[in-house]
What does this fold into?
Amino acid sequence: MYKIIKKRYFNDNAVEMTVEAPLVAAACRPGQFIILRADKDGERIPLTIVGCDAERGAITLLIQTVGYSTIKLGKLCEGDEIEDLLGPLGNPTELGAFDSVLLVAGGIGSAVILPQARHIRENQAADGKKNVDIIIGGRGREFLTYETELSQNSDNLYVMTDDGSKGGKGFVTDKIRELFDGGKKYDVVFAVGPMPMMRAVVNLTKEYGVRTLVSMNTIMVDGTGMCGGCRLTVGGETKYACVDGPEFDGAAVDFDEAINRAGFYKETERLHKCRFLES
It folds into this structure.
C-alpha cells in the first residue's frame, strides 16, 4: 500500500498527489511514469512522475479526473492508501545533448515537461550553456498547471489561453510560429498534450525544419509491452508507448491512427462514469 501524504487541487479536474513510494523515488528519471490501482478492483492507470524526492521517499503525480477510475482516485484523501503502484516505467527523456530546447505543453502536459525543465536547468547551472524556453496553453487560466514552477525553471515562459484570460489569446502553435518568425532558434521542440495539439505542433515545426519529440499518452494496461494496448505506428513500424517510448520523433508518428484508437472506448468510459456518479 502507498500512502498519500499531500494533496492539492489546481482546478475541479486536476489534483496533485504526493505518494510514499521510496523505491520509485530512488530510481525515477525525467520522462518516466508509473501505473497504479486506487483499490483492489480498480483499473490500472498510467501517470507521469512529476517529481521525485529520494530523501523523503516520495513521488508527485498529477491526476486529471475525467473518467471513472481517475475520479475514484481523486476522491482519496491525505492519509489514504493506494492499493498498488508499479514503476518507474518507460524510457527516460534524453534532452541533455541539446543546447537550446523549447518545451510545449497543453493542459496537464505541464506535468510531463516540468521534470524536463528542472533537469535542463540543473545542466544549465553545471555548464552555463543550456537554454530552455517553455510554452504552456489551456482553454482558460483555470486550466493552467505548474505555471510558477515552470517559470522558475526556464529562461522564458510563454502562456497562451484559448479565451485570452491569461497570457496571449490563441493556441500554443500561434506562439511557436511567432517565436520562429521572430528569429528564435531551437535544437529541438518537446511537445506534450492532447494528440490533436501534438499533431498541430509537429505539422508546424516541420515547416521550419525543427525536430520535434512528443510524449504519447496512448491507452495502456500493463506497462510492460505484453498487452499491446498502447501500440502505435512510428515510421511505418509498430511500437509500444510503454517500452519503446513514451517519447517518439513526432514527424514519424501516425497521429491519425493514434487518435482513432484513443477513441475506441469513449462510449464505454462514458457509461461507466455515469454509473459511478449515480451510485
Summary: The longest strand covers residues 2-11. The radius of gyration is 18 Å.
